[in-house]
Amino acid sequence: NHFSTTTTATTNDASSSKNENIFSKITFIGTGKMSQAMLSPLISQNLQTPSSITAYDVSDAALSKVETLYPGVQTATSIPEAIHNSN
Fold first, then answer.
1. How many CB atoms are located within 10 Å of the residue 31 CB?
2. pLDDT in tens, 28-43
3. Contact call for residues 9 and 69 (beta carbons, < 8 A)
4. 38 within 8 A of 50, measured Cβ to Cβ
């Protein structure tokens, strides 16, 4: 995938703990190697709940791969949909 990755994140106002997300919402525009390198530890180290992560890619196959690898991550069919409710 030759697309660049852009990440949009909104931080929580309260101090983060292991039971709390680092960001209130994080969006990945592009789901290539860089996005997956960030997604994996965010989820596996319980730094971010999958439901608070949204991913967008022009490739349906790439989005399906994200859904398979990271259950609960939201996927979007457009950039405006992906960044909806971001600050």
1. 27
2. 999 999 999 999 999 9
3. no
4. no
Q: What is the pTM of this model?
A: 0.76
CA distance 37 to 45: 13
**What residue type is 60 in one-letter code?**
D
Residue 59 token pair: 């490739």
Token couple for 75: 């996927």
6 token code pair: 């852009």
What string of H, E and C letters represents the secondary structure of the chain? CCCCCEEEEEECCCCCCCCCCCEEEEEEECCCHHHHHHHHHHHHCCCCCHHHEEEECCCHHHHHHHHHHCCCCEEECCHHHHHCCCC
CB contact set of 40 (below 8 Å; sequence gap of 6+): 70
Is residue 7 within 8 Å of 30, Cβ to Cβ? Answer: no
